[in-house]
Design brief:
globular, 7 helices, four-stranded mixed β-sheet, Glutathione S-transferase Yfyf (Class Pi), Chain A, domain 2, Glutaredoxin, single chain, 52% helix, 2 domains, alpha+beta
């Protein structure tokens, strides 16, 4: 399979991490979203939304949306809980990540790191909602080791992608002891070096 992705994107990296963890063969094709490479006719034919990541399988089928991709790739692995309810809780966190976490944590990071904005230029509402997401994660992880059950699942992989670099978006992780513990454990599970 071919993964069309931007190495700066947590949404793309989570697909790569799942492939590496599960030893799934893939070819990475680097896409520069800021140069409009997702807007070419060839790319839009694969993914009409013009977004990365996009996976093209050997049989010609394509799949987009990071959490849908990792859910498909890991469908028969230990990254998806066997218990149906715990698997549904994993899905609950996957949906929450894209709606209540990524739009704030990842967007603030993009503005500071890639657009060179100053922290004072960030939308206060985005910052507030980003901290609300981190607060919710800390509360959950203070009572349990991972997000869905007692083992690392796709919920952890998905949430790790932007949480581990939240500081790059101006978020202070210093007061989140459970979150920092979890980041280290999931990074180690995936064989990732600690985020700088």
């Amino acid at each position: 399979m071919k993964i069309y992705g931007d190495s700066n994107s947590g949404n793309c990296l989570k697909v790569k991490w799942v492939c590496v963890k599960l030893a799934l063969p893939y070819q990475w094709i680097e896409i520069d979203t800021r140069k409009g490479e997702t807007r070419t006719p060839q790319f839009l034919e694969m993914n009409g939304a013009g977004q990365v990541p996009t996976v093209a399988f050997d049989d010609g089928r394509t799949l987009a949306q990071s959490n849908a991709i990792i859910r498909y790739l890991a469908r028969d692995s230990a990254l998806v809980p066997r218990d149906a309810f715990i698997a549904a809780k994993m899905d609950e966190w996957l949906f929450w990540e894209q709606y209540s976490h990524e739009p704030y944590i990842a967007v603030c990071r993009f503005l500071l790191v890639y657009l060179g904005k100053d922290a004072s230029e960030l939308d206060p509402e985005k910052v507030k909602r980003g901290y609300a997401a981190l607060d919710r994660m800390e509360q959950h992880l203070s009572a349990g080791r991972f997000f869905a059950g007692e083992e690392v699942s796709l919920a952890d992989v998905s949430l790790l992608a932007y949480t581990r670099v939240a500081h790059e978006g101006g978020f202070d992780l210093g007061r989140y002891a459970a979150l920092r513990r979890w980041i280290g454990e999931v990074e180690a599970f995936l064989g990732l070096p600690p985020a700088r």
